[in-house]
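On clarity, I found the account of how folds are encoded harder to follow than it need be. Since the whole study asks how a given chain folds, the encoding of that fold should be made plain. For the editor and my fellow referees, an illustration may be useful. An entry of this sort, consisting of the sequence and the corresponding backbone structure tokens, reads as follows:

:::
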Amino acid sequence: MKRTTSLIQKATVATIGFLLCVPILSRFIEIPKRKLDGVAMEYSHPRWSWKAVKKGKYQKGWEVWSTRDNPVWSWSIASTNELVYRLTGELSLDYVTSIQGGNDGYFWQPMYLKSFNGTRKPQAAVIEERFQQLAQAQELLALHNVTLIGLINPNILQLYPELIPDKYKAIVPGPKDYDIALEAIQRHKPEVFDAFARLKEEQPSYPIKFFEPTGSHWNDIASCLTVKGLSSKLADSWKESIPDPRCESYSMEYPPRPSDTDLVAIANLLFPRSLLRPAPYVQTPVPATLKKPRKILLVGTSFLFAIEKELLRRKIADTTTLLFYFKQIRKDGEGNFYGFDRRKITKEFLLRYDAIIVDANVSAPGSMGRGILPVIIKALQQETSSTPTTVEQSQMRKN
């Protein structure tokens, strides 16, 4: 018995000693690093300067380089995350994380938790002003035959509260931001498509949820249903016919596409593939055949990525421009985003488009449009009145 205990102790000490030597060995023996999503993988040792030494930056730089610029660090992060998740079902035990583990193998984002619980004071005045601005901007754009639609997106917490562990739930009684937004919409009558409410209504008709366990955004069916609702409003405004996208016609794929696995990628687990599940994807739709090419401007959050893709795929839009958080710009859903100067939002810029879609999450309806609504109002109020010549000019620009 003593001999067995002694062997175990020696083996443990030897293992610890070996692991301690691996960072040094990795400087002489090539050991592959494990890629970590959202984390820098290459570090360089700091450059010497007395100023950096006095401020402690030089010493800190050496600490970061020696710790992270070796393969042990990346593998240890993945191994620790895997161990914590398998033992607890969560990704962080200190609550300081951008994603967290939930029930039934789902991941979720704590950024929505304060709104879900109502622990953040509702921004009643901001919400009231925002939907009043939305209605006003819609009226001004309508004078030039430009359709403006507000879109309220869901999030997984508020659409599926049963997926959130009970220990995170501390719901405060009283109206939430979304409740206040509904009242403001009722008062000011802006054109809004409430995708959150529509998906709650449609859920009983589908055997699967509208979020994938490993994705941060709505899945293909949810974005299809949202485009269906938006298409109805666009068709009425344009006096056009837009085909039904047939969101109920879908097939399951495994593995899911990257857009449905972004959370598990960021989780940086050792065995992420074991958590993937088949995901639904709507079959190729019948494209719209519109009287003329349509241009659509989208302004807001990353939920618009899927909307933009669907508008282009279904030929509802011939070209699109996405102003991501009203800070960056991208054309036709391709390539990188580039910085955008808000001063470019002029009357001429706005009248290039046949429709404008602005969005906000159900957790923060007061952020609708991310600041573009007052800019639209200012740009269009510079003229004292609308004349037939002005309307004809706007139509010529689109054509």
